[in-house]
Amino acid sequence: MRNLIMICLALMLAPASVVRADRGRVICLYSGKLAASTESGANAPTEGNIDLVEYDLRSGKRSVLVKNFSSGNLHDFSDLVVSCDGRFVAVGKSPTLTGSNDGDDIKLTPNGLLLWDRKTKLLKTIYPGYTNEQMLWSSSGRYLAILDSYSEGPIRIYDAFTGRMHVYSGYSGFTCAAWSARREELTVVVSTVKKGSTIFAQPAIGHRRVLFRWHDTIDAIAALGDGSGYALCDGVGVFLHKTKGQTNRLPIRRSHNDPWDITFQPQPNGPWTAALSSYSYGEPHINTDEALYVFKSDGRALRRIAKWHSSYLSIQPNGGSIVFMRPVGWLENSSKVVLRGQVTWGGEAVVDNRSDQFQFWTFDVPQARTGKMIFDSGPGCLCAVWWPG
Q1: Whose CA is closest to 217, among 202, 237, 200, 241?
Q2: What does pTM read for this prediction?
Q3: What's the Cα-to-Cα distance from 168 to each of 134, 146, 171, 173, 347, rounded to whole Å?
Q4: Considering just the CA atoms, what is the radius of gyration of the chain in Å?
Q5: Of 45, 253, 359, 383, which sits most exposed with the smallest number of CB within 10 A?
Q6: Spatial CA neighbour of 342 closest among 326, 330, 363, 328
Q7: What share of the chain has pLDDT > 90, as a percent?
Q8: What are phi and psi of 267, to 5 degrees?
Q9: How far is CA 308 from the centre of its chain?
Q10: Alpha-carbon separation of residue 369 from 92, 151, 273, 329, 341 (angstroms)
Q11: Average per-residue pLDDT in the chain?
Q12: Cα-based angle 170, 173, 174 (whole degrees, multiple of 5)
């Protein structure tokens, strides 16, 4: 009897993370009207109220952060990013397209970039000129980089603590960027066909400096989580470039000449990096092959732990297909990488599909086990982002 009491007391006093593993949280833009609809994409509701909601994946609790965050067109928003500490949520609004019917004079009218502060509960516009730029939060959760690789415009870094926007020009030929693992500075790649790539370190506040140069155009880059160097992808394959100058090529290569995309997700302060490769092929690129690789900062222990194939031609009106896979982070105090996938369904034509459902998985990297789904948004989710919580 005494042993039973001691066991019960131990369970009562044990930290929650011991009893049930923390899986982080998911924030999404949610439309109850769209969730209640069973119509295909072409007939689904396009107007309604949108709430900003959060799901605690450990407790299962659902919280409405901002009721009626927006009202009107359900497709007014293009992206959603959250700082690593969960305090700030940035939401990009889609631009308004206007122009002639023949498409010769299309005009983009920006609708702005919004920022919600969990601490103050305030919602404000921080960049009125936002159209569809990439957004990256620094590891401290203080700085938000706003990047536009299409217009080759300046790089903007917003200080969420002071409300000041820092604008840096001179990045013509910009291709990709990532925050440093240890410093408040952005790693920025500028590439040209003839001269290869120059990699800069752009501090959040201050002047840039050259980190190193590369012989080819770089399509993706990430600072390794342990601070020892960078993972990058060029026209040939994937490489590790160390801060001391050593270069190591990894056996992740292009298998054909169709469009290839790769996304890196380093483990914060850890040795692992996840890399998701994606090939699109067919006419007009309606098939996608994706694979998840992991490797250590020294290039060892590389393995492929998952792969997927999706085809828009196989999507059925009452079924679904997981597309747009992306690594989004790592569970805290573990070696489990988190992936997000978007569920597309509604019909064969892409324009008729409904893409209002997201799923998240974890993959145990050292064990290379099959992924485990930790969250399914169900229909009605317009954008979704995971954070460690």
Answers
A1: 237
A2: 0.88
A3: 16, 11, 8, 14, 44
A4: 22
A5: 253
A6: 326
A7: 57
A8: -80, 120
A9: 18
A10: 35, 42, 16, 17, 18
A11: 85
A12: 80
